[in-house]
């Protein structure tokens, strides 16, 4: 079914159109990590005209989950009598001292699940254990995570709770566009998020900052068409929001999913790792569901966070720092054992420095 | 708190994954770069010798005064569940070691088997596994000639672990190995990628949906013999097991100091496997295979090898997926021409393959 959206000729046709209409440089942000992944996976970046710069946004819930919450997760998972459940890719995210994999290696019961409902099932089967689910994600995972809490409450399952780290896209867009150093001129709005929430909320943001947006999917043709629509608006000086992903997204989104979110969650301030606090950018459990809030249930106090060593490839790509200013350069991070894209790619700045400018 | 309370987007930082210095973690068993690091930093430090340091899955040992070498290999097997669609731990234990020896280009003759059994393990299941091992051994034309049994207390082992070792012989003139890939060589795979890994995941009921995917686990020595008869100049034979095609090709690139370039559209992946991978956020290029072989050989013999592979039931979907090139940079790498015409690097698996959330 998806083959048409991976068709080389259709993608190349859309790319030719982008080349034809592009008259000057444009910086477009895809906010979603899934889209960044697809762009790199299909090598789409290299096929765009040089004037089109894709800026990769902070839309990866794993990456932006605050250090404090990761440390709390580790503290809870380390306790006796706890089964800690999480989406798989949270397990390698470094906390101040260790990660969830290390907790598992030290004997903690840490399990990978594919949905929050699976965690509720584990709670049902293990009534003498406390089962905690790491509820991370954007608007896309929120409905399913919310349902797990509703289900647990309805069935009287008391040994289930959720460590909530939900984040929302629109406040992040405000923060990016309102930043004094902002370079983003157009946005690819994340298709999956819009499938749940619709795209009415983006209109005022587009208008306020004068930035056109295209609701964009995840297949190569979807991405190319989203970029084409955005470039077209930029070239014409239009500030609109267009739906380039109409096979999955409607203006109003999924009302049922929105209602479930509204029943269970309410907005709150949220720390984004590597970025800082973004006001009202997260969701927490409403007072009706406080019994299912792992932060309250476990009272993990006295969390002293200390950020681990950092990979600065993001800054290197923007020309803000030189590779040898990175603490990992040439020691932890080498071409044989690269830690960032700039060391992996043979055209990458770090790899070039390593080859030609190593002390 | 070291996080600052003002959003900053011009200085995005990414925390480095923590190095695992104290304890073994699951990623050390993934077959990817952490497994490699474990081998290099611990085992090679202590065991280093000329044969081990060739970094093949087999060791070819010279026999004084003979034009033959003895080939040995050893492999431990743990799998959950022990019975899965298309196979079981017994068939896996025989096939895995037969295949590792066969990748030398030699004839596999004998196997030994060591069993670690957990107290309470079902004897009926053990018998079923033994029968399955004998069936696979007969299929491969090898005999299981020695063995060992240990029983661990309840809770100290997960049902059954099986280690097998294999012995075979190879003509001294045959020099097949990962280091032998040459510029211009053609890269062939014998069939579809990712079947085993997805079949086992599905059998764990972890997919949240049912599939009809069967593991490809099989002894490949017959297939390899046929390929070698048709194309005696084969440079590399390697089975893309843990870590999948991508990790195995990266190992070959490093061993041979060559670039390998792939055509994404040519790589065979079954629709059901692709669909399962997309649901889970896996890349089929990193999913394990247990009945497939990568053949790297001079282009002039590629067609003969393909014809021979196609004539065998385990190789009927064999296809050319890429070629070997002189390295373009200092570090050899695997790259891929994507299905929309872009190019990307295909890296080694870096930790355990984890389902992505986004």
TrEMBL record, chain A:
GO molecular function: 4 iron, 4 sulfur cluster binding; carbon monoxide binding; iron ion binding
Chain segments annotated as coiled-coil in the UniProt record: none
Top-rank lineage group of the source organism: Bacteria
Pfam families in UniProt: HypD (PF01924)
Keywords: Iron, Metal-binding
GO biological process, one term: protein maturation
Extent of the signal sequence: none
Record-stated family: Belongs to the HypD family.
Protein name: Hydrogenase expression/formation protein HypD
Automatic annotation (TrEMBL), chain B:
GO BP: any one term: protein maturation
Ranges for domain PurM-like C-terminal: 182-327
Database matches in CDD domains: HypE
SUPFAM superfamilies, per database record: PurM C-terminal domain-like (SSF56042), PurM N-terminal domain-like (SSF55326)
Domain spans labelled PurM-like N-terminal: 57-170
Family as reported in the entry's similarity comment: Belongs to the HypE family.
The protein, known as: Hydrogenase maturation carbamoyl dehydratase HypE
Organism: Pelolinea submarina
């Amino acid at each position: 079914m998806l083959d048409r959206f991976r068709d080389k000729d259709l993608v190349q046709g859309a790319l030719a159109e982008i080349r034809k209409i592009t008259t000057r440089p444009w910086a477009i942000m895809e906010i979603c990590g899934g889209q960044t992944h697809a762009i790199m996976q299909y090598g789409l970046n290299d096929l765009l005209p040089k004037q089109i710069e894709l800026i990769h946004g902070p839309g990866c819930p794993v990456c932006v989950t605050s250090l404090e919450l990761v440390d709390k997760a580790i503290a809870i998972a380390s306790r006796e009598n706890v089964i800690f459940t999480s989406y798989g890719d949270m397990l390698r995210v470094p906390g101040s001292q260790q990660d969830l994999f290390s907790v598992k290696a030290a004997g903690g019961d840490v399990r990978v699940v594919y949905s929050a409902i699976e965690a509720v099932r584990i709670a049902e089967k293990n009534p003498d254990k406390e089962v905690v689910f790491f509820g991370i994600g954007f608007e896309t995972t929120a409905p399913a995570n919310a349902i797990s809490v509703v289900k647990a409450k309805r069935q009287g399952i008391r040994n289930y709770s959720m460590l909530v780290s939900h984040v929302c896209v629109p406040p992040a867009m405000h923060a990016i566009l309102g930043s004094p150093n902002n370079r983003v001129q157009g946005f690819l709005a994340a298709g999956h998020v819009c499938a749940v929430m619709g795209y009415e909320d983006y209109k005022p943001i587009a208008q306020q900052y004068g930035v056109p947006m295209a609701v964009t999917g995840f297949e190569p043709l979807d991405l190319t068409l989203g970029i084409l629509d955005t470039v077209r608006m930029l070239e014409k000086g239009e500030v609109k929001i267009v739906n380039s992903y109409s096979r999955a997204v409607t203006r109003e989104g999924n009302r049922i999913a929105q209602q479930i979110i509204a029943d269970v969650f309410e907005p709150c301030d949220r720390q984004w790792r590597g970025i800082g606090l973004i006001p009202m950018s997260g969701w927490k459990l409403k007072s009706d569901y406080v019994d299912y809030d792992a932060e309250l249930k476990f009272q993990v106090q006295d969390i002293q966070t200390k950020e681990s060593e950092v990979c600065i490839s993001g800054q290197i790509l923007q020309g803000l720092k030189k590779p040898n200013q990175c603490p990992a350069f040439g020691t932890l991070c080498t071409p044989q054992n690269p830690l960032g894209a700039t060391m992996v790619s043979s055209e990458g700045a770090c790899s070039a420095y390593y080859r030609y400018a190593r002390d | 708190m070291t996080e600052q309370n003002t959003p900053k987007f011009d200085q995005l930082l990414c925390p480095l994954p923590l190095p695992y210095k104290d304890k073994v973690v699951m990623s050390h068993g993934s077959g990817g770069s952490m497994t490699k690091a474990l081998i290099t930093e611990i085992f090679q430090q202590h065991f280093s010798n000329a044969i081990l340091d060739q970094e093949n899955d087999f060791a070819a040992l010279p026999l004084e005064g003979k034009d033959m070498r003895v080939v040995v290999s050893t492999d431990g097997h743990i799998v959950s569940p022990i019975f899965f669609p298309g196979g079981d731990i017994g068939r896996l234990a025989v096939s895995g070691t037969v295949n590792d020896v066969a990748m030398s280009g030699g004839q596999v003759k004998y196997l030994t088997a060591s069993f670690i059994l957990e107290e309470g393990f079902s004897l009926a299941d053990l018998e079923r596994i033994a029968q399955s091992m004998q069936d696979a051994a007969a299929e491969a034309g090898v005999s299981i000639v020695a063995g060992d049994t240990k029983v661990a207390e309840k809770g100290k082992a997960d049902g059954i672990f099986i280690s097998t070792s294999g012995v075979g012989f190879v003509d001294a003139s045959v020099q097949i190995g990962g280091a032998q890939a040459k510029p211009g060589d053609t890269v062939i795979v014998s069939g579809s990628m990712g079947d085993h890994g997805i079949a086992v995941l599905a059998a764990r009921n972890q997919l949240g949906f049912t599939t009809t995917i069967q593991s490809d686990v099989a002894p490949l020595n017959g297939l390899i013999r046929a390929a070698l008869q048709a194309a005696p100049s084969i440079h590399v034979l390697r089975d893309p097991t843990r870590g999948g095609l991508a990790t195995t090709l990266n190992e070959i690139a490093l061993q041979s100091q060559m670039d390998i370039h792939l055509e994404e559209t040519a790589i065979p992946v079954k629709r059901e496997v692709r669909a399962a991978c997309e649901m889970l956020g896996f890349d089929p290029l990193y999913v394990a295979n247990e009945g497939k072989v990568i053949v790297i050989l001079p282009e002039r013999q590629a067609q003969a090898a393909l014809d021979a592979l196609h004539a065998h039931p385990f190789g009927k979907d064999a296809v050319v997926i890429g070629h070997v090139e002189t390295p373009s940079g200092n570090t050899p790498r695997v790259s891929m021409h994507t299905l929309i015409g872009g190019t990307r690097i295909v890296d080694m698996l870096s930790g355990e393959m984890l389902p992505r959330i986004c």
